Amino acid sequence: MTSTENLRDRVAAQLTRARDRSRLLTDAVDDHDLVRQHSKLMSPLVWDLAHIGNQEELWLVRDVGGREPVRADIDELYDAFKHARSVRPELPLLGPAEARRYVGEVRDKVFDVLERTPLEGHRLVDGGFAFGMIVQHEQQHDETMLATHQLRVGEPVLDAPPPPRGGPVGPAEVLVPGGPFTMGTSTEAWALDNERPAHQVVTEPFFIDTTPVTNGAYAAFVADGGYRDPRWWSEAGWAHVRKASLVAPRFWERVDDRWYRTAFGRTEPLVADQPVVHVCYHEAEAYATWAGKRLPTEVEWEKAARFDPATGRSRRYPWGDEDPTEAHANLNQRHLAPAPVGAYPAGASALGVHQLIGDVWEWTSSDFHGYAGFEVFPYAEYSQVFFGPDYKVLRGGSFGSDQAAVRSTFRNWDYPIRRQIFSGFRCARDASRDELA
Ligand SMILES: [Fe+2]
Fold first, then answer.
1. Which CATH number fits domain 159-437: 2.102.10.10, 3.90.1580.10, 3.40.50.150, 1.10.10.10?
2. Is residue 137 marked as binding?
3. What is the pLDDT of residues 30-50, one digit of tens each?
4. Could you tell me which residue ranges the DinB-like domain spans (predicted)?
């Protein structure tokens, strides 16, 4: 088999894997649940499905393949910039049967385009980039659809085995040495524009938590009156916590002195050693302040994840350069919850930091910006239009993310008030002179 055939097989397998997931998430509910809106924050599931097909048609059928449109008439309906999520149910969308037919028809054409396209010679197709971008796009929407499932009210429809058990993780914090490290990538074939280029960054030494903050630790902040004490909150955070009447992470509920949380239609006692999930940036920041720490910057997070002090180089993943396996990280919607801390010893970074990839997206204190040398590719709407102070960067992916769409260089972003996403955090702090001596 030639390397191009190999790459084609890999692309085809990834496209199929993404589609299997989309199908599972949309076949799990009836037509009524597919077309209705489960939250103003989310699109109807049937919009996500046809939007996945429409992006695939635009980039792979029309642009890469140079083929005639399948349905030029619906581009406008599925343009995410034209209609806010809140108004999408009012649009004359394709119905469930039509949407399924449409994405199937597009996919058939894409397999044909894949067979006939040389995966080299110009940047859009080098290394299968455009196909990889569409795989990641579908997987990102699969995570969004999973978040819609979490907001859906009704009988549970999704099932998965529980995550592996937790284990020992060593000291609570890890010292990351100061000095230069390589951030971002110029070599990862499917990396998106905002992850590029690789560049040197110098940090001071700092401490970072060995694991994400757990439900148990977060519950102590709640019990200590954390949500009622402005000392722990930024000005914007305090204004938000009051306006939105926040008292605990989303989907937590207190019954008879005990916390419960609801996930995918099932209500269970809070698991103390699982990472906290469904907190917004403001909540993460307030907890960190209460704990006498702060959130890591995006630079610090990536250094803790990738820097190998033995060689000085940055790895693709915390555990090394090989793709994730079940032993490394809680990804791919394999489990429908974050795993208890210490569940993935094989996934620890060279410095001994655990569960950086998978489980929960981790808020960082950084605004979303392009790196020095950033170049828009292939379109400004992928990330450049979001650069600026409105968004905070999240890192590492969650149990709802697919491994095709998560790397140690991968950057996600969202508004600091959002918490319907699978977001948690870990803390960091400066290292004092005494601690370094
Ligand atoms: Fe999209």
1. 3.90.1580.10
2. yes
3. 999 999 999 999 999 999 999
4. 14-145
Expressed in angstroms and rounded, the spacing between residue 78 Cα and the centre of ligand 1 is 9
Q: What is the mean pLDDT of the chain?
A: 97
- Tens of pLDDT, residues 136-188: 999 999 999 999 999 999 999 999 999 999 999 999 999 999 999 999 999 99
CATH 1.20.120 residue ranges of the chain are: 3-151
Which of the four pLDDT bands, split at 50, 70 and 90, describes residue 1?
low
Helix (H) / strand (E) element for 414: namely strand 411-414
Q: Is CATH 1.10.12 what the domain over 3-151 is classified as, yes or no? A: no
Alpha carbon of 411 to ligand 1 centroid (Å): 16
**Residue 96, H or E segment:** helix 96-116
Domain with CATH 3.90.1580.10 in the chain: 159-437
Structural contact between residues 173 and 345, judged by C-beta atoms closer than 8 angstroms: no
